[in-house]
Amino acid sequence: PGTDEPVIPILDDLAPYYVVGGETWDMRTLQIEDNACFDCHRVGMSTVEMFLANGWHPDRFMPPHRPGSLREDWEELLAVWQNGPESVDGAEWIVPPAKGEDARVVGDDYPHRASFNAPGASPFGFGTKVADTKGKKAAGETRKGSGERKTDTATLAEVERLLKELKDPGTRKAFEGWIEKNGVTQEVLDKLRSIVKGGR
Predict the structure, then answer these.
(1) CA dist 174 to 25, 166, 192, Å?
(2) In terms of Cα–Cα distance, which of 115, 87, 93, 97 is closest to 106?
(3) Mean pLDDT within 157-180
């Protein structure tokens, strides 16, 4: 109170912070030149999808003290997420600083790309049971009857094993809740694999 000192560290492209163990994760976030959504933080879109799926909408809360005033910036961000950075001038994928490397722009050759971080893969439905917009089935799914889907035994066994390997009980509970509500998807499976591989 009474100061301009931020309570939360500012994570811009010059910030000296990075996610410990994140060197092999898909750490890409979108960057759009002159888009005010990025003035003070990075935006992880699959995380935004989880918030949206639970009834939280940025126009009601963001930015602080002026909710809804960045609607055009938000809509531009959604367009980039849906259609890819190449669809909007000044948009690109960036990764934060890590292990002595500066923040940098990355392209299609980024080695840690994961399906949960693919524009258009599951618009407003992290955890959707249906195939994504590119026609890929959710993880381990097979068709049964009239379009009904089921998840194969091998995939369920892998998910169960990965959940047991999660060290943080809160993370495990969150994944279990999503899976119970929405089923096993490729996004969920990729994210689980990535977190377990990183030792979290």
Answers:
(1) 19, 11, 11
(2) 93
(3) 83
